[in-house]
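Retry 2 of 3 after timeout on previous attempt. Resubmitting C-alpha cells to design endpoint.
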C-alpha cells in the first residue's frame, strides 16, 4: 500500500477566483493565496485529499452498475474526470481501492483514474481522526474534501457530539498543515435525521473556519431523491449514490474547488 502517487511536477498554481461560499470571502481569498504560494514554493501539484466513508470509497458490488447490490463508483471518479484537464493537481492518500474490490473505473484518453484517497466503508469521525494521525505528515495535503458524520449520527450520536468530532478532525488537519483548505460535504438524503443534520452542518461551517484555514460547504444534495425505485433516483439503496448522484456531488465539489484552480486548462494528450 503506497503512501501517495508522486505525480509529474507542474508549474505553480496560478489564477485565483474570488467566489467563496458563506460570506467568508476575505478569509478564503487570503488562504487561497497561501495554499497557492506553498505549491509554488514546492514546485508541486496542488494535493487534494478525499476523506470519507462508503460514499467516498465506492465498492465493487455483486451486480451491474445501477443495481442495488451493484458497483458504486464514488463521486471521486467524475470529480477526477473533470479536474484532470486542469494543470497542477493530484489526489493523495494511503488507500486506493473500493470496498471489497474495485468497480470499473475506466481510463480517460489513456490516463488512469487517480485512485488515492482516505475513505473506508462505515467509518465514523473519531475513527478517521485516529487513523490519520500517522498518515498526514507524508500526505502534505493542500485541500481536504471531507464527507463524514452520517455513520456517527445513524449510530445514535447527537448533532452536538458529531460537531465536536468534526472539530477534532479539523484541528488534526491543521496541526500538520495550518493553512489547509477544507471543503465539507454531507451524506445526501431526503429523510430524517440525515436531512436535518446536513442543514445544521452547513449552517455551522463558518464557525469551523480560521483566518488561515478556510472551510467551505459543498452541497450537492439539491433536489436529491433517495428512493431507488423512482426513475429520477440519486441512489442505489436509499444511501449510496448511483452515477447520477455521484455526478451531483462531484459538481458541488468542483464548484467549491474553483478558487484553487488555475484559470487555463491543459491540452489533451
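Retry 2 succeeded. Sequence:
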Amino acid at each position: 500500500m503506497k503512501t501517495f502517487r508522486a505525480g509529474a511536477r507542474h508549474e505553480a498554481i496560478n489564477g485565483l477566483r474570488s467566489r467563496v461560499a458563506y460570506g467568508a470571502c476575505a478569509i478564503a481569498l487570503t488562504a487561497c493565496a497561501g495554499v497557492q504560494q506553498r505549491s509554488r514554493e514546492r514546485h508541486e501539484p496542488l494535493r487534494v485529499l478525499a476523506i470519507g466513508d462508503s460514499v467516498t470509497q465506492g465498492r465493487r458490488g455483486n451486480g451491474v452498475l445501477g443495481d442495488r447490490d451493484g458497483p458504486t463508483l464514488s463521486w471521486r471518479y467524475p470529480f477526477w474526470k473533470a479536474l484532470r484537464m486542469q494543470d497542477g493537481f493530484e489526489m493523495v492518500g494511503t488507500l486506493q481501492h473500493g470496498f471489497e474490490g474495485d468497480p470499473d473505473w475506466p481510463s480517460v484518453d489513456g490516463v488512469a483514474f487517480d485512485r488515492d484517497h482516505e475513505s473506508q466503508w462505515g467509518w465514523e469521525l473519531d475513527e478517521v481522526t485516529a487513523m490519520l494521525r500517522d498518515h498526514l505528515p507524508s500526505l502534505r495535503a493542500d485541500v481536504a474534501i471531507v464527507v463524514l458524520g452520517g455513520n456517527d449520527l445513524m449510530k445514535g450520536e447527537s448533532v452536538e457530539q458529531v460537531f465536536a468530532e468534526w472539530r477534532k478532525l479539523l484541528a488534526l488537519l491543521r496541526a500538520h498543515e495550518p493553512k489547509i483548505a477544507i471543503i465539507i460535504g454531507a451524506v445526501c438524503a431526503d429523510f430524517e435525521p440525515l436531512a436535518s443534520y446536513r442543514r445544521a452542518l452547513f449552517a455551522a461551517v463558518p464557525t469551523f473556519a480560521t483566518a488561515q484555514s478556510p472551510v467551505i460547504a459543498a452541497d450537492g444534495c439539491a433536489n436529491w431523491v433517495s428512493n431507488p425505485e423512482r426513475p429520477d433516483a440519486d441512489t442505489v439503496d436509499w444511501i449510496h449514490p448511483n452515477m447520477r448522484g455521484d455526478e451531483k456531488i462531484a459538481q458541488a465539489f468542483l464548484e467549491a474547488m474553483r478558487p484553487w484552480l488555475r484559470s487555463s486548462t491543459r491540452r489533451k494528450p
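Attempt log closed. Residues 1-30, 263-269 have pLDDT under 50 and may be disordered.
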